[in-house]
Amino acid sequence: MIYLDNSATTRPSDSVIKAVSENMADNFGNASSLHKMGINAEKVLKDAKKTMLDKLSLDGEIIFTSGATESSNTVLFGVPKAYKHNGKRIVTTTFEHPSVENPLRQLEEAGYEVVRVAPPKRDEPQDYEQRVIDAVDDSTLLVSVMWVNNETGFITDLSKIYTAVKRKNPKTIVHCDAVQGFCKQPAKLLKADLISLSAHKIHGPKGIGALFCAKGVRFSPLLYGGGQQKNLRSGTEPVDMIAGFAEAVRSYPDCGRKFAGLNEKLSGMLSQLDGVVINSYNNSKNILNFSVRGVRSEIMLHFLEEREIYVSSGSACSKGKTSGVLAQFGVSDKDADCAIRASFSPFTEESDIEALAKGISDGIKRFRR
Fold it and tell me: Which helix (H) or strand (E) holds 2?
């Protein structure tokens, strides 16, 4: 099997599976309990939070959630409640993940003004980050911008946006969906008040995520209950899953050079095939989006699946629907209907890339008319 759909989810690593199973079997106490089992569970939580903060190289608090969707929803509904006198303008992009875009639509219906900034097209020398900054004014409550786009890998300079926004309006809160960039991009490039994270994109378990919150930043909780995690996210903490998340962070290797090599190799092999165009640019090298003209994505995807090669036809959250996000990056509807996303992991080998390119070539010969 050749698995190249790592932006959708990843195979849990052996060390993560071990960490989850050992804590599930031997460290199953409630972290709120005062006895030894509770204290042992609480230690796992503290160690995991330190692991996350060390990886982010930021000072603040880590709140564990059920995933990045909950983290982002907590921010988008919780910040307006906590800072209701700071304005009703929110600045974002036209290519956010549904876990950000759909809550923003709810806020629009509630009377908030949402300004969406489009990315630059491939050949446009526009300063996209500056346009985000320019959209911020005295009434801007929140800026929410993803770090790495899940469909094309497009990278946003969050550090630049954060610094300029705080200079322009210190009251504006900056949020980042960092799911696709966490552990894959240098942490020094990420700066925000609130950051959404997910374990299953880095070989951790599904169903566990985190929200980084900088010191001094507030939000109203999304969930109310027993008051766990400083009343910011009630609910008994899943110690086993949190241990797995922390192990995924600790064990994720530096793959910058490897991803760059794999990306270059696949791009080069695809460029030799007639009617194949690359849609990704300014992208994280673990993601490559391309269109095979003349062959619909679904047909190519299932043809590759017959060879046990697994890729995506777009965001897994869109259930295979034609992506509206690709249009924001200048991809025509016709090319979007033929788009394939390959995404790599530390386990991806050059032979996997060669097999994918061969599969695409054979698919073209079989299906293109």
Answer: strand 2-3
Please state, in angstroms and rounded to a whole number, the distance separating the CA atoms of residues 243 and 264.
35
Contact 288, 280 (CB under 8 A): yes
Task: List the domains of the chain with CATH numbers.
Answer: 14-251 (3.40.640.10), 254-367 (3.90.1150.10)
Q: What is the DSSP string of 168-207?
A: H-TT-EEEEE-TTTTTTS-GGG---SEEEEESTTTT--TT
DSSP 61: E
- For the full predicted model, state whether its pTM sits above 0.70: yes
Angstrom distance (rounded) from CA 228 to CA 296: 48
Q: Which two tokens stand for residue 56?
A: 């982010």
Whether residue 368 contacts residue 295, with contact meaning beta carbons closer than 8 Å, is answered with yes
**pLDDT given for residue 316 in this prediction:** 46
Confidence of residue 61 (pLDDT cuts 50, 70, 90): very high
DSSP, res 114 = E
Check 176, 183, 213, 317 and give the catalytic one: 317
- Whether 317 is a known active-site residue: answer yes
289 DSSP β-pair partners:
341
Amino acid 91: pLDDT: 98
